[in-house]
Amino acid sequence: MTNRKKYLTETIRLLLVDDEKGFVDIISKRMSKRNIQVTSALSGTQGIQALRGQDFHVAVLDLKMEDMDGLEVLKIFKKMVPDMPVIMLTGHGSEQAAREGMQFGAFDYLTKPCELDDLILKIHEAVSTGR
Amino acid sequence: MRAEKETHGHYYHSLTRKMVLIISLVSLTPLFLVSAIILYQFRVSYQEKVYDHLGELVQKHTQNIDSFLKEKLADIRFLAETFGFEELGNESFLRDRLETLQRDYGPVFVDLGVVNAQGLQIAYAGPFKLEKALYYDAAWFKKAMKTRFFISDVFLGLRGLPHFIVAIRDNCRGEHWILRATIDFVAFNNLVENIQVGRTGFACIFNGEGEPQTKALLDTMPQKRTYLRFLKRDQDKKNAINVVEAKDDSGKEKIYVSTFLKDGDWMMLFQQDSSDAFSDLRKAIQVTVVILLLGALGIVTTALVLSKRMVSRIARADQDKERMNDQVIQTGKLATVGELAAGIAHEINNPVAIMVEEAGWIGDLLEEEEFRRSENLQEFERALKQIKTQGQRCKQITHKLLSFARKTDPRTQDIQINDLISELVELSAQRAKYAKVVIRTRLKQGLPCLQASPSELQQVLLNLINNALDAMEKTGGVLHLGTRLEGAHFIIEVSDSGPGIPEANIDKIFDPFFTTKPVGKGTGLGLSICYGIIKKMGGEIEVKSTVGEGTTFFIRLPARGKPGGSAKRPGKNDAYQACSGAES
């Protein structure tokens, strides 16, 4: 835990788009303990709205949502803020969609359920290199 | 199962019977019909030919006999008209005439006699002592006196021997006299008998009362009744030749040819056994029938053999179809379960992720100072670890389910099956050691390359190896891995010396979610996945198991490409390189 803290020189603003409220809530809580400020959006539309009013260092986007296809949201994100790195979350066996997302400019992808540490590592990586 | 087999057996037997029947009917019916028609026509033509031939023969013969009689009558008439009663009444002169006649015509004339109106033979030349014989009461004399020319029937007369006479009535000084000559019965008989045809064909002559006028073989002579029947029937057709086929008194079929001669006084009757007359026809029919029967036998035998072969092929095709149906059902089942599994896996992933994260959150909170002093800190941490571990297990299960359902088609490449197996043996060595299992391999060298996805094949084999190790975990044993080539197919064998699979379960082992492992140990998807992968590769997977002895899995994959040599060990990440590389 102490190792992780050395990354935290600046609070990272993260946009988390996932339609699973329980997951978003707990991740927000755990992230905030690790110096990451999470703005949660429970749908693709909410995510786009959130992005309109605020700057984020990085976005974490679930590819499988009910209202919009994650890839579509990714395309819009990339159009709105091309510099913002986007990390995709995908189900096991749906890596094909994630690989497609990489072509549209996503930073990387992780398969769900993933370890929080892996996700945080990826976020830091994205913030430091993707910016 | 047995009842179903018996029903199938009945079905194929009845199919064979029907085929034999139809082929036989279709082939034999026209054969027999055509043969019967041809034979019938042939028989009719042949009969007509025989009848015509016999009719012609009899007609000619009758004409011959008629001319013979007329000739003899003409000879006598010539004598009577040339020499007259006085000269011929001289016995020595008469004897001279007889000699002349016998010299000219052979011994046809037996004797000559001159009879006056009172029936007294006034002159006689011949071998019998008939001088001064009195014929006044003789039937022939009475008839001869009434007509100018007369030929008698055969009679015994005064000499007591069968003979017949030709007589001329003439006039001398207002009184009738008769010159008569006896015709040699033997010569006449020979003339009539001259017509013999075949073994049983002969002719004879009857008079108007049915008395035979020639001496034929008595046992073959038509009886008087038979003769009279013809006489009665044909009396109004005196010049015709009548041919008829009828049964004689002994019931024997005979051909009768009849015609009249001597101006309708006599009847010539020719008879021949039908069997004799038609012997050639009978032989031809016999040969034809034998050929027909042999042909029919050949057709029926061929129909039987062909039908049996055909039906056995149909039976095989049916079996294949049934097997295929089973496979389609199995594949369909797998696909349905796959979709279901994918849905469930996705649904479960999220709550599990939340649970794990919540546990992580508790972990985060436990790092706060106030909780670190708690008495139960260690217990909390153990519980959290357990939650994480179980969450991980859930994740593995859902991953397996998703692997099973995954529809993407991983790329195939040429691989050396032996190398792949060797690597798997290395991978499993540690686990085998713990399970006290000895791994033995019998890998056929120089096998051709296999076109397949290495990761998928690895998954299949690893699954089988793991199952085998699980089966032998308690007792230890031997795991045998083998490869060989059978025709155009690779055979991969994975056999263990474990407890075996009970017969009741052997049909279900490839069904999804079927497992005999304790709850929490197996998902029941491993073999289902193996089945799906091998099917996708165009191969087959089978199992043979004996309880108490062990289980063997056979994987049969189509071999393509050229033989590969002993391949080099592939790199850890580059999996199984193309065979061309392996061969170098």
Report helical residue fraction of chain B.
40-55%
Q: What pattern of helices and strands is seen along the backbone of chain A? A: HEHEHEHEHEH
Gyration radius of chain B, rounded: 59 Å
Which whole number gives the mean pLDDT of chain B?
Answer: 83
| Poorly predicted runs of 5 or more residues of chain A | 1-8
Description of the structure:
- The complex is a heterodimer of chains A (131) and B (584).
- Chain A is an alpha/beta fold and 131 residues long.
- Chain A has helices at residues 2-5, 21-32, 44-53, 70-80, 95-103, 116-130, and strands spanning 12-17, 36-41, 58-62, 86-91, 108-112.
- In chain A, strands 2-1-3-4-5 form a 5-stranded parallel beta sheet, sandwiched between helices.
- In chain A, helix 3 runs parallel beside helix 4 (70-80).
- Chain A is globular and about 35 Å long.
- By secondary structure, chain B is of the alpha+beta class.
- Chain B is 54% helix and 19% strand.
- In chain B, the strands form 4 sheets. A 5-stranded antiparallel beta sheet of chain B has the order 2-1-5-4-3. In chain B, strands 11-13-14-16-15 form a 5-stranded mixed beta sheet. In chain B, strands 6-9-8-7 form a 4-stranded antiparallel beta sheet, with helices on both faces.
- In chain B, strand 4 and strand 5 form a beta hairpin.
- In chain B, helix 1 packs antiparallel against helix 2 and helix 10 (417-434) packs parallel to helix 11 (454-472).
Defining key terms:
heterodimer; A: 131 residues; alpha/beta; 5-stranded parallel sheet; 6 helices; 47% helix; disordered N terminus; B: 584 residues; alpha+beta; 5-stranded antiparallel sheet; 5-stranded mixed sheet; 14 helices; rod-shaped; disordered C terminus
Brief characterization of the structure:
With 131 residues, chain A is an alpha/beta fold. Chain A contains 6 helices and 5 strands. In chain B, the strands form 4 sheets. Chain B has a 5-stranded antiparallel beta sheet with strand order 2-1-5-4-3. A 5-stranded mixed beta sheet of chain B has the order 11-13-14-16-15.
